[in-house]
């Protein structure tokens, strides 16, 4: 194997060039470190519409979900939503699969919400979720969208919103009713 030394013609970022020099990589490509940049917009809904999250509890729920994301090595750029559903803009850590990441968020937050107030004793999230990739250039647009959920849902229901996300992202519904 030959030692790679970045030069003026190297088309990789200065930070990665620094890692290559510091780690002393041998081969044509240095992969001793893991680099990932995966942004996700995650959406999930409450299971029982008779048990929505109280509007006053939402900020606390959003903060808790952000903490779950951080404890799983992710970055919570924004967590928002309405009493019946949650939107998250996050990064996917390279140390966990997508399904395990979402399961951790939903299981931990559901358990925590049940302990928040006796009215939530039967609280749970629906089994499914939507996850959509977000480019670096669209992070701001998705952030604004999540911040404006209250206004947005004066015009569009959570169900219709989710169907629009599926259609916009070229996903076909596999069941007859996504509300299950």
Task: Describe this structure as you would to a colleague.
This protein has 180 residues and is an alpha+beta fold. 37% of the residues lie in helices and 14% in strands. The protein contains 6 helices and 4 strands; from the N terminus they run αβαββαβααα. The protein has helices at 14-23, 58-71, 98-116, 139-147, 149-152, 158-168, and strands spanning 39-45, 76-82, 85-91, 130-134. A 4-stranded antiparallel β-sheet has the order 2-3-1-4, with helices on both faces. The radius of gyration is 20 Å and the shape is globular. The protein starts with 13 loop residues before the first helix and ends in a 12-residue tail after the last helix. The mean pLDDT is 85.
Low-confidence stretches: none
Helix count equals 6
The H-and-E topology, N to C, reads as HEHEEHEHHH
How would you classify the helix and strand content by structural class?
A: alpha+beta
Q: How many distinct beta strands?
A: 4
Instruction: Kindly provide the radius of gyration, computed on alpha-carbon positions and rounded to a whole number of angstroms.
Output: 20 Å
Provide the β-strand percentage band.
Answer: 5-15%
């Amino acid at each position: 194997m030959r030692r790679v030394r970045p030069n003026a013609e190297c088309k990789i970022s200065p930070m990665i060039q620094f890692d290559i020099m510091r780690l002393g990589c041998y081969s044509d490509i240095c992969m001793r470190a893991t680099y990932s940049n995966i942004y996700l917009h995650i959406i999930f809904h409450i299971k029982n519409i008779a048990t929505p999250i109280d509007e006053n509890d939402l900020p606390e729920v959003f903060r808790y979900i952000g903490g779950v994301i951080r404890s799983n090595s992710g970055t919570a750029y924004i967590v928002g939503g309405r009493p019946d559903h949650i939107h998250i803009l996050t990064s996917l850590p390279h140390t966990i699969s997508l399904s395990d990441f979402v399961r951790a968020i939903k299981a931990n937050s559901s358990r925590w919400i049940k302990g928040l107030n006796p009215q939530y004793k039967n609280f749970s999230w629906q089994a499914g979720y939507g996850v959509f990739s977000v480019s670096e250039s669209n992070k701001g647009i998705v952030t604004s969208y999540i911040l404006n959920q209250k206004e947005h849902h004066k015009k569009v229901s959570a169900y219709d919103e989710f169907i629009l996300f599926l259609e916009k992202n070229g996903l076909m519904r596999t069941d007859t009713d996504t509300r299950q």
